[in-house]
Amino acid sequence: MSKYSIFSIARNAFSHHENWQKAWRSPEPQAEYDVIIIGAGGHGLATAYYLAKEHGITNVAVLEKGWLGGGNVARNTTIVRSNYLYDESAQIYEKSLKLWEGLSQELNFNVMFSQRGVYNLAHTLQDVRDAHRRANANRLNGIDSRFVTPEEIKREVPIINISPDIRYPVLGATLQPRGGSARHDGVAWGYARAADAAGVDIIQNCKVTGIIRDGGKVTGVETSKGTIKAGKVGIVVAGHSTVLADMAGFSLPIESRPLQALVSEPVKPVIDTVVMSGQVHVYVSQSDKGELVIGAGVDGYHGYSQRGGIDIIEEQLAALKELYPIFSRMRMLRHWGGIVDTTPDASPIISKTPVENLFINCGWGTGGFKATPGSGWVFAHTLATGEPHPINAPFSLDRFTTGYLVDEHGAAAVAH
Ligand SMILES: Cc1cc2nc3c(=O)[nH]c(=O)nc-3n(C[C@H](O)[C@H](O)[C@H](O)COP(=O)(O)OP(=O)(O)OC[C@H]3O[C@@H](n4cnc5c(N)ncnc54)[C@H](O)[C@@H]3O)c2cc1C
Question: Are 134 and 86 in contact (CB under 8 A)?
Fold first, then answer.
């Protein structure tokens, strides 16, 4: 793989940028692999990369039914933070944030990670109490987090409305200065390029249609490109997790729902941080192109369509206008949806399954983008060793029968 640098840009300028090496190959599948990963989203590609890098396992295929990075990884609003309430969550999201901090250099691909800070607004007295509790819990876990007053928020975000007589007045916020955002599809491309360079086969337009078992053990998969044998299989398909679990003969406590986002026309820099509000259900940041990136809450029904209800957009924009009156005449450019996989405790499942050598990584719901590096890192460990890493041990499938839940619902402010 040729290295991206200022020199390679200069070299390629001489040939009018027509001779860049392809970022990854498009191989046909081999008959057999040591490990098959189903799903070339951020988590699947990161898993493949860390399998090669950390464990020396390179006879790996990533099978993708559509195109690489066509799922949630490139449909999200790119918020990255680690200020979750419970110790178990703090561990995995902070591991991820630390990996984010060196990711562009490590992958030799600019994932445009920007630590511009993340605010989670508090609108009620209970919100304020919860925010204090979470900031204190975060600090005990070594995570940068503090409570800020409405005046401090206004200083950093002058366009915000902190008037006390609005529907949901701003009573304060938690701030994580090391939080921020990244370029979502760049993350998929960066991991894909680095995994491919390590020898991983990324096979697009290859839908998995069946899981092959020999008794209680997985031995391969049926795909739209034929049968492929495998020593181990990892399912990393986000909104389609229950579909794949059905194929393997077990069930998951997961609901799939549409989640939407939209962007505005590009405008001059107006907000240089990320502001989220769980209560009024809107969160906003500004992309490097100048578009406002605006997210909403999940739709109220289950579904697999990558679009959502118009009522959600209406509520989201009403909330946006209330918090930022300056945006009231802004035109919106486009909106879209993804399919998110939510668990009863709003925490992921990174686990063995009832089928031997079959592993699953899912349940990230509305907030898995931030976890992409950490999730891939611990899932690679789980696949390589057959056992969870201490960081993902609390996120096993059996917590739904033991009752040992990591209940981040409501505890971690808005779920993204
Ligand atoms: C609108 C929206 C906003 C969001 N905002 C944020 C945010 O701000 N911050 C945050 O942290 N998270 C956010 N998320 C959540 C985050 O995007 C997801 O949790 C995360 O991307 C899921 O992991 P993934 O990237 O691997 O999933 P995906 O990219 O969806 O990857 C799964 C892949 O599996 C493939 N697949 C499915 N079935 C099969 C099959 N049978 N065979 C082969 N391949 C298959 C799919 O085509 C897909 O490419 C948001 C999500 C949405 C939709």
Answer: no
Is pLDDT of 179 > 90?
yes
Buried b (16+ CB within 10 A) or exposed e, 270-298: bbebbbbbbbbbbbbbbbeeebbbbbbbb
The response to whether residue 338 sits with its C-beta less than 6 Å from ligand 1 reads: yes
Nearest Cα residue to 114 out of 161, 211, 179, 67: 179
Distance CA(272)–CA(159), nearest Å, equals: 11
Atom of ligand 1 lying closest to residue 207 CA: 42
**253 has a pLDDT exceeding 70:** yes
The finding on whether 76 has its CB within 6 A of some atom of ligand 1 is yes
Q: Ligand 1 centre from 18 Cα, in Å?
A: 32
Q: What is the mean pLDDT of residues 297-303?
A: 89
pLDDT of residue 410: 63
End-to-end CA distance of the chain: 35
Q: Which residues contact 25 (CB under 8 A, 6 or more apart)?
A: 196, 201, 202
Beta partners for 332? 264
The reported pLDDT for the residue numbered 255 is: 95
Distance CA 189, CA 107 (A): 10
Please tell me whether residue 272 adopts helix, strand or coil conformation.
coil
User: CB-based contacts of 189: which residues, under 8 Å, 6+ apart?
Assistant: 23, 68, 69, 109
Q: Are 271 and 292 in contact (CB under 8 A)?
A: yes
> Among 104-118, 141-155, 175-189, 275-289, whose mean pLDDT is lowest?
275-289
Confidence band for 136, pLDDT divided at 50, 70 and 90: very high
Q: Is the CB of 297 under 6 A from ligand 1?
A: no
266 lines ligand 1 (CB under 6 A): no
The reported pLDDT for the residue numbered 88 is: 97
The pick from 72, 209, 347 for probing ligand 1's pocket by mutation, whose C-beta has the most ligand atoms within 8 angstroms, reads: 72
